[in-house]
Specification:
414 residues; mainly alpha; Growth Hormone, Chain: A; 2 domains; 18 helices
């Protein structure tokens, strides 16, 4: 076998592993959001209201937000390959418990396990993807890994909903759990050993949140994500009341939004790898302007659809860009920074939905767009005022293949 052939094989193996990480982010986000399309049958089966059944989503997000900052310090220098496998099996168990649950208490116990698995996988995903490829491909690898988040919104949740309608909501949870088991096996096969030279403890994670560039990234994330969900949680009534869309058109509009989000993820991933600051400024400004223009220019179906696609394009790049920001801001503690991002991101989702609900109830549906625009504009101001972020550089040696990593492990990871 020639050297070129060996290098090509190692490169394919590395990108296959990155694809597996993307499949993992797809699975954890699908698992988190699955109740969205299944609340009515879940509530009917378990004998509770849709509001109570909806706590299955709230519990998962809160558990992920609380647990993620503790999971990474608890791992220490443990090889990340068995850790990811264990987290995916935890996710699978949580989905299995939810599928079996005879009552709402058991359902919530399963959703707690889903939250732990989701928070852990999300916290490790960017660091894993970045370590699997050469440094020049790092930004692309992270974009691929986080494409699973966007694709879950486009395909995962609707597919779970359709499966739930055809075969019952328990089948949808069981199928998602089965996917997590398959991915655990795939990860065990495809991932090389991923030891950690330097671990960040709980105190170090807390101190990290106070570092100026890390804090700026977390604040910008909180503003952008809470602003987005303040409006997006109520996007259906906005499209109906402002743009005049009917029920039959909503699905197509949201599908278009999701496709635009996937495109935005990849487009922003390339830019964020070079300059997270500039990319985040563009995304924040675009998001602010777009949602603020909906009440003015979105009063027709065509105008509303165009602005919705631009909205999706901008928000689709947020997760990969803030992830790159934090990796650049904390190259000495990438996993801890990612864990803080998971905590802030999930808390911001809950806060945004709460703010949007209060605005919609008190001031009318269109007011959620003004809330979103103001918060996104605040994120832009935060980014402008923040200390400059360095371009991300991998703190550890790139892992190209299982064999090359294993041969170095005796000398490089003492």
């Amino acid at each position: 076998m020639t050297h070129a052939t060996s290098s090509a094989g190692a490169g394919l193996a590395a990108w296959a592993a990155v694809g597996a990480v993307a499949a993992a982010t797809f699975t954890v986000v699908t698992s988190e959001m699955l109740p969205v399309g299944l609340l009515t049958p879940m509530g009917r089966t378990l004998g509770v209201s849709e509001g109570i059944a909806g706590l299955a989503l709230t519990v998962t997000g809160l558990v992920a937000a609380v647990s993620a900052p503790f999971i990474v310090p608890a791992l220490g220098r443990t090889d990340r390959r068995p850790v990811v496998v264990a987290l995916l099996l935890t996710l699978a168990l949580g989905n299995a418990v939810a599928a079996w649950s005879p009552n709402v208490g058991t359902l919530m116990a399963g959703r707690v396990l889903v939250g732990v698995g989701m928070g852990g996988v999300w916290a490790l995903a960017a660091s894993l993807a970045g370590r699997l490829v050469p440094g020049r491909s790092r930004g692309t690898a992270i974009a691929v890994a986080f494409s699973g988040v966007a694709i879950a919104s486009v395909l995962g949740v609707p597919a779970g909903t359709l499966l739930g309608e055809a075969a019952g909501w328990r089948t949808a949870f069981a199928a998602t759990g089965g996917l997590a088991v398959v991915l655990a096996v795939v990860m065990a096969v495809l991932l090389p050993p991923l030891p950690v030279d330097r671990a960040t403890g709980l105190r170090g994670t807390a101190r990290l949140a106070g570092e100026p560039r890390v804090r700026a990234g977390l604040v910008a994330t909180a503003l952008l994500v809470s602003g987005h969900f303040a409006a997006y949680t109520y996007v259906r009534p906005v499209l109906e009341d402002v743009s005049g869309a009917d029920a039959g058109q909503i699905g197509a509009l949201l599908l278009g939004y999701g496709v635009a989000g996937v495109a935005g993820n990849f487009a922003s991933g390339a830019g964020a790898g070079r300059s997270p600051r500039a990319t985040l400024l563009v995304l924040g400004a675009t998001l602010a302007v777009t949602v603020l223009l909906v009440p003015l220019l979105g009063r027709s179906l065509g105008g509303g659809a165009a602005l919705l696609m631009l909205w999706g394009l901008a928000y689709g790049g947020v997760s990969v860009t803030v992830q790159n920001w934090l990796l650049a801001a904390a190259p000495h503690a990438e996993e801890a920074a990612s864990a803080l991002l998971v905590a802030v991101f999930n808390a911001a989702i809950a806060l945004g939905a709460l703010l949007g609900g209060r605005a919609a109830d008190g001031l009318g549906t269109a007011s959620v767009l003004w809330v979103a625009g103001v918060l996104a504009a605040g994120a832009v101001v935060q980014v402008v005022a923040a200390p400059a972020a360095r371009a991300p550089r991998p703190p550890q040696a790139t892992v190209r293949s299982r064999s090359s990593s294993a041969s170095r492990s005796g000398t490089n990871h003492t």
